[in-house]
Design brief:
Largest sheet: 6 strands, mixed
Low-confidence stretches: none
Number of strands: 11
Domain Acyl-CoA oxidase C-terminal: 490-668
Strand content: 5-15%
CATH superfamily of the largest domain: Butyryl-CoA Dehydrogenase, subunit A, domain 3
GO molecular function, one term: fatty acid binding
CATH topology of the largest domain: Butyryl-CoA Dehydrogenase, subunit A, domain 3
Binding site for FAD: 157, 196
Bound molecules: (2E)-Hexenoyl-CoA, flavin-adenine dinucleotide
Radius of gyration: 27 Å
Family: Belongs to the acyl-CoA oxidase family.
Structural class: alpha+beta
Cofactor: FAD
């Protein structure tokens, strides 16, 4: 694939690549999950990227809002048609996992650029049917939805409530006479607001609504609701639906609004895997009333994968650019160095490369936990649901925050050119930062993790056995740092000790407020800034541990292991130095330890510097997926920037219309 590997590259990048100390392909295989998967991914990329239908007539930034939507919808539909019409393709792409990559942060970002109008159909509508529907419901709805005969979204958030699900106002009232549910939006704040694809694309939605039957409310439940006519695509009588207007990014996801006026749907449209309403209106409770939140748990895990893939793209662009860009003087009189020579630039970029691996190892672990726990749930064992909930909230929040901050660091690391749309860093940023808000706003996610930590801490005090991810909360009094040991194992132990002491302090603060007369909830709010810090420290510890385990377990040649161990070590030290107060206050590390680690970090930056470009090359991101004038394989940065500028519609005429209309009358006013 010329754009990825064989193309001529500039002298700077050629020299960088010649310095590589490890086997790049090994790291590519590790990230993909094996050589076969890498070859498979490349084959799919070749097929889809060779298809001219996925090219844009002009840069989307130059199109109107509606033109952009139509352009992405055209490509999204072509993608599905290409997938459906060809059995080989279906086998090649693979089922859910493959189609999600076409829709999302893998190849998807090269095919549809600023949000795919069909994304929610695959990312949430189908998973909601699979996770919340009975076997019969899955059979009926999946066969229609899989081929695109019907297109759906997930409509939960309302104008008035996104975070607080128990506060949702849309109602689904069962009428046993007609065996129908009546879906209704009683207030303006009950209007569904945000669902992707809802604005103009979908004709169905999984609607989350307060279930009323036999005069009693049973909380939020999922219903399949037809929004638009299957023939005319007009909104159904009793349904008002539209698009919510321009957003910071993801503007072609056509996020929408939706209101219901006493709108009737059949009894069979309540998704009844976990709880049921019998035909006579009797309500049958689920084994756990949070099972109806299951679709969100799934997507939170998926977001961790999106997060590191977006960061991979940003750091590939910024690192290659930093090897091509020369600026200032390091030594007076000598040629201007590559900006990658500056230690401060290395400190911006190399921790982002390490973060990609940290999130990847942790995400793989949470994905395995998700599969295990959901398997247990289907066999009636719900014991590990709280741990899965805490892990998925924590990793979703950590990965989306780290990736967003990291993408912005990469943008800033490219100076002025990073601010240009053609660098693609602005779009990567606006896409990544959305994940901080959607699928559970991050502060709220941290507080869910904190709730689990405090509960577990109290359980430990009572002598109960804790679940694996928090088992360290029983050992906080033991000194993790008895010797001057600063090995990886000792540093992970230091992370554990720091969180453990923080959680114990938080529990004491809570108790203090309660002793002074505060009710638990008020005491909780008074401690919530610190509780969020505990949750963040826990998720960081967890990621560090998975990073160390992941490197130890990976089968790698010596050179490749060395470079990955350096990244792992950088990750461990970097987060200790920026949170050193937690380690010092808990006694997990001394000031002397931190000074040694800071010194070591400087050495690691220098040791990793020669491999920087090869490390991002090993992410194996096709130029079309990077879509950046700064980050291409060949490093031909300046010519690309210039060529892209020439394509601006403003440059198709020498003198703009505005000159004659506004500027000239002003400039010539006194003549
Ligand atoms: C591409 C993507 C596009 C975007 C799509 C979207 O954004 S879609 C829209 C995305 N929208 C969002 O993501 C909305 C975010 N908001 C929410 O998810 C919830 O309202 C909440 C979790 C914040 C609180 O919920 P609440 O007020 O009902 O609960 P509570 O705080 O009173 O806790 C009670 C107990 O329940 C437990 N528990 C809670 N959740 C789960 C779970 N999933 N599983 C298991 N357990 C769970 C909790 O741990 C606690 O246990 P404890 O301690 O008693 O043993
Ligand atoms: C790009 C995008 C796509 C989306 N797609 C969908 C979709 O497809 N389907 C769908 O249903 N929804 C979707 N959403 C909605 C999204 O899930 C919600 O916006 C999100 O859950 C946050 O809820 P909110 O907007 O009500 O924020 P709020 O809860 O109002 O948050 C505002 C502030 O209040 C704080 N806050 C709120 N509650 C608490 C608390 N208990 N403790 C401490 N602080 C608190 C938050 O931390 C935040 O700082 C999307 C949103 C975006 C931005």
């Amino acid at each position: 694939m010329a754009a990825r590997k064989e193309g001529e590259c500039c002298e700077d990048l050629r020299r960088e690549r010649a310095k590589c100390s490890f086997n790049k392909e090994e790291l590519t295989y590790l990230m993909d999950g094996g050589k076969d998967k890498t070859l498979h991914r490349r084959k799919i990329e070749d097929i889809f990227l060779a298809d001219p239908e996925f090219l844009d007539p002009i840069r989307p930034e130059y199109m109107s809002h509606e033109e952009r939507y139509n352009n992405e919808l055209r490509k999204a539909c072509h993608m599905i048609r290409k997938f459906n019409e060809n059995e080989d393709m279906q086998q090649l792409v693979g089922e859910m996992e493959g189609i999600r990559s076409l829709m999302g942060s893998g190849l998807g970002v090269a095919l549809t650029k600023d949000g795919n109008p069909l994304a929610l159909h695959f990312v949430m509508f189908l998973p909601a049917i699979l996770g919340q529907g009975t076997v019969e419901q899955q059979g009926y709805w999946m066969s229609r939805a899989w081929t695109g005969e019907i297109i759906g979204t997930y409509a939960q958030t309302e104008l008035g409530h996104g975070t607080f699900l128990r506060g949702l106002e849309t109602t689904a009232t069962y009428d046993s006479n007609t065996q129908e549910f009546i879906i209704h939006s009683p207030t303006i704040t009950a209007t569904k607001w945000w669902p992707g694809g809802l604005g103009k694309t979908v004709n169905y939605a999984v609607v989350m609504a307060q279930l009323y039957t036999q005069g009693k409310c049973h909380g939020v439940h999922p219903f399949i609701v037809q929004i638009r006519d299957e023939e005319t695509h007009q909104s159904m009588p009793g349904v008002t639906v539209g698009e919510i207007g321009p957003r910071l990014g993801m503007n072609t996801n056509d996020n929408g609004f939706l209101r219901f006026n006493q709108y009737r749907i059949p009894h069979t449209n309540m998704l009844m895997k976990h709880s049921q309403v019998l035909k006579d209106g009797t309500y049958v409770k689920p084994a756990n009333d949070k099972l109806s939140y299951g679709t969100m748990v799934f997507v939170r895990v998926a977001i961790c994968f999106d997060a590191y893939r977006q960061l991979q793209r940003a750091v590939t662009i910024a690192t290659r650019y930093s090897a091509v860009r020369h600026q200032s003087e390091l030594v007076p009189g000598e040629p201007e160095p590559q900006i990658l020579e500056y230690q401060t630039q290395q400190y911006k970029l190399l921790p982002q490369i390490a973060t990609v691996y940290g999130i990847m190892f942790a995400a793989n672990d949470v994905w395995n936990t998700y599969n295990e726990v959901t398997g247990n749930i289907s066999e009636g064992n719900l014991a590990y649901l709280p741990e899965l909930h805490a892990l998925s909230c924590g990793l979703k929040a950590l990965s989306s925050t780290d990736a967003t901050n990291g993408v912005d660091v990469c943008r800033l690391a490219c100076g002025g050119h990073g601010y240009l749309a053609t660098s693609n860093l602005p779009r990567i940023y606006t896409t990544t930062t959305a994940a901080i808000t959607y699928e559970g706003e991050n502060t709220v996610m941290w507080l869910q993790v904190a709730r689990y930590l405090i509960k577990s801490y109290h359980d430990a005090q009572k002598g109960h056995r804790l679940q694996q991810s928090v088992s360290y909360l029983t050992t906080q009094s033991a000194s993790a740092h008895a010797t001057a040991d600063l090995s990886n194992t000792a540093l992970v132990a230091a992370y554990k000790q720091a969180v453990s002491v923080m959680v114990s302090n938080a529990a004491a603060h809570l108790q203090d407020h309660i002793s002074k007369g505060a009710v638990f909830e008020k005491a909780w709010n008074s401690c919530s800034v610190y509780l969020v810090k505990c949750a963040q420290a826990h998720a960081r510890y967890y990621t560090c541990e998975k990073f160390v385990d992941g490197v130890n377990r990976a089968e790698l040649s010596e050179g490749t292991r060395t470079v990955l161990l350096r990244l792992c070590r950088l990750y461990l030290i970097y987060h200790i130095t920026i949170n050193q107060g937690d380690f010092l206050r808990s006694g997990a590390l001394t000031g002397g330890d931190i000074s040694s680690l800071e010194k070591e970090m400087a050495d690691i930056l220098a040791a990793l510097r020669p491999d920087a470009v090869s490390l991002v090359d090993s992410f194996d991101i096709h130029d079309r997926v990077l879509d950046s004038s700064l980050g291409s394989w060949d490093g031909n940065v300046y010519q690309r920037l210039y060529n892209e500028a020439l394509k601006s519609p403003m440059n198709q005429t020498d003198v703009p219309q505005g000159y004659y209309k506004y500027l000239r009358p002003l400039m010539k006013a006194n003549l």
